[in-house]
Amino acid sequence: MPTAGASAPRIPDRPPVLPPRPPAPPAARVPRRPRRWGGKLRVLLLVVLLAVVGFGVWVDTSLNRVDALPADSAGTGSGTNWLIVGSDSRAGLTSAQEKELATGGDVGQRTDTIMLLHSGSSGPVLVSIPRDSYVPIAGHGRDKLNAAYAFGGAPLLVSTVEAATGLRIDHYAEIGFGGFVGAVDAVGGVEMCVPEAIKDPKAALNIKAGCQELDGATALGYVRTRATAGSDFARVERQRAFLSALVKKATSPATLVNPFRVVPLTSAVTAAITVDQSSHVWNLAGLGLAMRGISSGDGVTTTVPVGSTPTIGGQSVVQWDKNRASALFTALKDDEKPTGRALGP
Question: Domain containing 96 — which CATH number?
Answer without folding.
Answer: 3.40.630.190
